[in-house]
Design goal:
2-enoyl-CoA Hydratase, Chain A, domain 1; 49% helix; 4-stranded mixed sheet; 2 domains; 11 helices; Lyase 2-enoyl-coa Hydratase, Chain  A, domain 2; alpha/beta; binds octanoyl-coenzyme A; 256 residues
Length: 256
């Protein structure tokens, strides 16, 4: 895989994808989406990758969609740029494996939307979050108007989008936009430790738990319970029997 904006390392089941366009604070342009789609296609069939971490190079996670590129667009091009981002982030959400955003700096506009499309977010004390699109005469267009309220509730979503205000990582933690805040120097180590903990578990249980939560979140709760029971029962024909047997035999499980 030869990319100009993305850098990728994979070790012991944990992949780290770094968005590297620091001269523009890692702003998302068309080339990014081309490379990101290629990357997501390439990992979909990986049998060794168990967790993906996404981070940014330099002082920014991602400072938004590329304003210079968007400024030249008409409404049709804007629609298609929005759809490109929504589809790519949708593909990320639908990966079988968990995805952790390790937010090192600015996560603004499309960058905050990318972080929200990950399964959860670990932030450095230096991270800053915001959806400042209204200050550009725009609105969030990569899923932000829909995902933010689902993550933090209606009031905080409306507050953040309508004021365009940037918040620090402590405030992001308070409203539930991030799950953990750490010192900048240990951000990647902490993300790797969490990823390693997940990578130890049954890959089938991890994939199935993610599916139950993600799919169940978008349906009526009774349908979610049905989905859970169906997926739960399938685990008995998979790693469930080995996991419970290993517990009773006081040994480590050998996952399928
Ligand atoms: N796009 C393009 N270039 C950018 C972006 C961006 N989003 N953000 C920063 N840059 C560039 C700057 O222009 C500057 O370039 P140069 O050195 O050539 O002048 C370089 O990065 C460094 O930036 P600054 O000098 O501004 O760095 P500061 O530390 O002074 O400020 C900020 C950092 C506060 C992050 C500031 O750069 C900023 O406000 N950036 C823009 C943030 C923003 O508004 N983001 C939202 C963009 S809109 C969006 O994301 C919509 C998503 C949905 C799209 C739907 C499709 C239609």
């Amino acid at each position: 895989m030869n990319y100009s904006i993305l850098k990728y390392q994979h070790e012991s089941g944990v992949g780290i994808l770094t968005i590297s366009r620091p001269e523009a604070l890692n702003a998302l342009n068309s080339l990014f989406f081309k490379e990101f789609n290629d990357f997501l296609n390439s990992i979909q069939t990986s049998e060794t990758l168990k967790v993906l971490i996404i981070t940014g190079e330099g002082k920014s996670f991602v400072a938004g969609a590329d304003i210079g590129e968007m400024q030249k667009m008409n409404a049709d091009e804007g629609f298609s740029f929005s759809k490109t981002g929504q589809e790519a982030f949708g593909k990320l959400v639908n990966l079988d494996i968990p995805v952790i955003a390790a937010v090192n700096g600015f996560a603004l506009g499309g960058g905050c939307e990318l972080a929200m499309a990950c399964d959860f977010r670990i932030a450095s004390l230096k991270a800053k979050f915001g959806l400042p699109e209204v200050s550009l005469g725009l609105i969030p267009g990569y899923g932000g108007t829909q995902r933010l309220s689902r993550l933090v509730g209606l009031g905080d979503a409306l507050y953040l989008v309508l004021t365009g205000q940037m918040i620090d990582s402590s405030e992001a933690l308070r409203i539930g936009l991030v799950q953990k805040v750490v010192e900048p120097e240990v951000l990647i180590t902490e993300a790797k430790n969490i990823a390693a903990k997940i990578a130890e578990q049954s890959p089938c249980a991890i994939k199935t738990a993610k599916k139950a939560i993600r799919k169940g979140y978008n349906v009526e709760i009774d349908k979610g319970f049905d989905l859970e029971a169906e997926l739960f029962s399938k685990m008995f024909e998979n790693d469930g029997s080995e996991g419970m047997k290993a517990f009773l035999e006081k040994r480590k499980p050998n996952w399928n």
